[in-house]
Amino acid sequence: MNAPIRNHFLQIPGPTNSPHAVLQASARPTIDHRGSEFAEETMGLLADLKRIFGTTQPVVVYPCSGTGAWEAALVNVLSPGDHILAYETGHFSSLWRELAERLGLVVDYVPGDWRSGVDAERIFERLSRDRTQKVKAVTVVHNETSTGVTSDIPAVRSAIDAAGHSALLLVDTISSLGSIPYEHEGWKVDVTIAASQKGLMVPPGLGFNAVSAKALEASQHARLPRAYWSWRAILAANEDGFFPYTPATNLLMALRTALNLLEGEGMAAVYARHARYAAATRAAVEGWGLEVVCRNPKEYSHTLTGVVTPEQFHADLVRQRILQSFDMSLGAGLGRHAGKIFRIGHVGAMTDLTLAGALCGIEMGLGLSSVPIKRAGVTAALNYLEATLPVDI
Ligand code: PLP
User: Which end of the chain is more exposed for a tag (fewer CB within 10 A), N or C?
Assistant: First the structure.
């Protein structure tokens, strides 16, 4: 295949575009993962990683995708037959539930409509009824990537506390970490699950568990079988900057550079940038006269926007048209949203002009697909971007 002249427009909600500096870091010659240079770099990396999660407690890094990090979280703190309370926010909460069931856990799945976030009141009700404290963990997805809906994690924490319940709180931040404000320790989360390929702007291949003291304590007694995923051996080796097996050395080098870039920009600015791009995207959707999947404005995701296509138009045909005409990938509708929505990723390394370009491609693609839209989306987004340009740009 000939090398393309221009970059493909990757506007899926992860994996995201990695900055050149991050890719270049991953292309450095691999170093000895049992040598002192690696150990020194790892010690610094693990320390800095804590800041992104908002924790002073350990962050475990795995060579895996987000699903591996989910499994790691469950097997480290739970035992066969344990009950967990999971909340249905969309496709990813459903996959997490399936994985838990395959591991032999009993899942009480609070039904949701795939257009709203977690209703903490329903968590409170369920836990208040659990007088014998049978539920050992509550699992929620912070930012449901299949819908573009963000849930209020402090409200979930308060619900657990208000019910006087001892369940651990496990939160998936795979599409929010590093792009939507998050505080592992401040929000009293027990295990935060994350991955490299979205807000952290690193290619896929690293999974994370940020763990609380309570989760570490639970891991001492948990009986689900675990070997590769066990926190214990990893944390012991991490003390000296090593891993008990071959780590994804080059992805760790990429992560080092990505953290430098994020911290160089400043996390407050990074979060504000994502919020601004999300608002500009919604302005475009409204300008086209289309509907955003997320029902509650307080739950709008800053990293992606789900867009409903009118009933007689298959969303995947629109996506295909956009790919063919403009070499741009958009996220497909997943699970029950398949064919009915498309998802615009505005997460990771982006600028005003990449967002503007993406929205232009979508407006033209909708037109080429004969979807009846008003031609006011791009204009609305550009007006928003112009009016909200940060002063120091
Ligand atoms: N959870 C969320 C919120 C996700 O967005 C994804 C993937 O997009 C996953 C879990 C699964 O992660 P992975 O595909 O990296 O295994």
Answer: N
Q: For residues 14-20, give the mean pLDDT.
A: 97
- The tens digit of pLDDT for each residue in 66-113 reads 999 999 999 999 999 999 999 999 999 999 999 999 999 999 999 999
> Which of 88, 145, 171 maximizes ligand 1 atoms within 8 Å of its Cβ, making it the mutation to test the pocket?
145
Kindly report the pTM of this predicted structure: 0.98
> Closest ligand 1 atom, CA of 195?
15
Binding site membership of 193 for ligand 1 (Cβ less than 6 Å): no
Q: Which residues of 124-148 are buried (b: 16+ CB within 10 A; e: fewer)?
A: bebbeebeeeebbbbbbbbbbbbbb
Q: What is the pLDDT of residues 114-132, one digit of tens each?
A: 999 999 999 999 999 999 9
- Number of C-beta neighbours around residue 252 at 10 A: 25
State if residue 141 touches ligand 1 by the CB under 6 angstroms criterion: yes
CA of 201 to the centre of ligand 1 (A): 14
Q: Where in the chain is the domain with CATH 3.40.640.10?
A: 20-263
Question: What CA–CA distance (Å, rounded) separates 16 from 286?
Answer: 25
Which amino acid is it at 141? V
Q: Is the CB of 65 under 6 A from ligand 1?
A: yes
Tell me if 177 CB under 6 Å of ligand 1: no
Which residue puts its alpha carbon closest to atom 12 of ligand 1?
66
Q: Report CA(143)–ligand 1 centroid distance (Å).
A: 10
**Which of the following CATH numbers is that of domain 20-263: 3.30.499.10, 3.30.70.1290, 3.40.640.10, 1.10.1040.10?**
3.40.640.10
